[in-house]
Amino acid sequence: MAIEQLPDGRWKVDVEPVKGKRFRKTVKTKAEALRFEATRRAECIQPASWNPKPRDNRKLSELIQQWYKLHGHAITSGRRRANLLQLMAKRLGDPVARKLTGADIVDLRRRELEAGAKPKSVNNRLSFLKTVYNELYRLGDIDYLNPLAKVKPLKLQEVELSFLQVDQIRTLLDALDKSRSSSVRLIAEVCLATGARWSEAQGLCFERVRNDTVTFVKTKSKRVRTVPISPELAARVSAYLEAKGRFAIAMRAFRNALKASGIVLPRGQASHVLRHTFASHFIMNGGDIVTLSKILGHSSLAVTMRYAHLSPSHFKEAVRFNPLDGFDTSSTRVVAAGMKSLENQPLGADSL
Predict the structure, then answer these.
(1) Catalytic residue of the set 79, 220, 223, 320
(2) Residue 71 bears catalytic tag
(3) Which end of the chain offers a freer environment for a tag, N or C, measured as fewer CB atoms within 10 Å?
(4) Are 235 and 254 in contact (CB under 8 A)?
(5) Residue 319, exposed/middle/buried by CB under 10 A (0-12, 13-18, 19+)?
(6) pLDDT, tens digit, for every residue of 63-78?
(7) Residue in 109, 125, 281, 298 annotated catalytic
(8) 307 is a catalytic site residue
């Protein structure tokens, strides 16, 4: 028995949270009874002052392992992330996780940058480690706040997104035609026509190409999305997949063809340039930014806004609203030139 109403309308509490500790009380309302019961249970859960709860002295490597067991195993690339974090713990000297400080992380970051690490990679590892503390705290596995909460990531220089011009697209497709891979050109065309990532296009099967659309299921955002394509491309993709079942893995073939084409791209933008090319041409041809966000499968419109500067209206407004709009710059140059010629003239008596 915990809470019971008596014949006179009052409420009786009879609770035994821990064997040997029993609490009884009679109160006027049920709400008071519930509060009394909750308070007594909480008191028994909290450690007594003479017997404090032992501190969590697990090493950082143990905490990372626990994070993987409770959460990391269920996320994409969880094992790879856990391995990166274990390497990070080793470089830190595998301290007691509770005693790790922001200064320790900043010092490691300095050493990694001096050794040639990329700032973005350093930021990623910091984010991963913060997630370990936050997730274990949320799950109740640790009882202390994230000691790295106030460490800010490095501010990165924004990289200009590269995309292919129409003549470069033709050059690339010609190079793909010469590849030994039978699927590399089709995969590239799907990426150019839909803005799909290479892995999404390569993972298509015959059942997901129907009614002149393609459906991507294994996406980065975990959301299924369907994008229309031209009937001609749909027919060729369907015919290939019906005959072969799946696209052959063709990333290496694409890189080789890209290199043979002579097109030079920033580092890290090999197949992803196809996605940027679709998005850039979509906006330049007057497409809507919200529609583009849905086609690309972005979880936030802020990510898609990277392409907004390519909008034709954006350029028109830059011309229309700049401070020289409506200003006769040609006459200004003429007047300025005349003034300069006068300055070079010697001053005579008439000019005084």
Answers:
(1) 220
(2) no
(3) C
(4) no
(5) exposed
(6) 999 999 999 998 888 9
(7) 298
(8) yes
Mark whether 173 and 252 lie in a shared domain: yes
In a domain, 328, yes or no: no
Number of domains in the chain: 3
The answer as to whether 70 is a domain residue is yes
Task: Return the CATH number at 262.
Answer: 1.10.443.10
Residue with tokens 């129409």: 166
Catalytic residue list contains 197:
yes
30 is catalytic: no
Given a cut of 60, whether residue 346 has pLDDT beyond it is no
Tens digit of each residue's pLDDT (9 = 90 or more) over 266-275: 877 889 999 9
Range of the domain at 22: 3-45
271 SS3 class: coil
Q: Does the annotation mark 133 as catalytic?
A: no
φ and ψ at residue 216, rounded to 5 degrees: -100, 130
Q: What is the pTM of this model?
A: 0.65
d(CA 109, CA 155): 13
34 and 64 in a single domain? The answer is: no
* Phi, psi at 26, each rounded to 5°: -115, 125
For residue 83, give both structure tokens.
């391995």
Is-catalytic flag, 272? Answer: yes
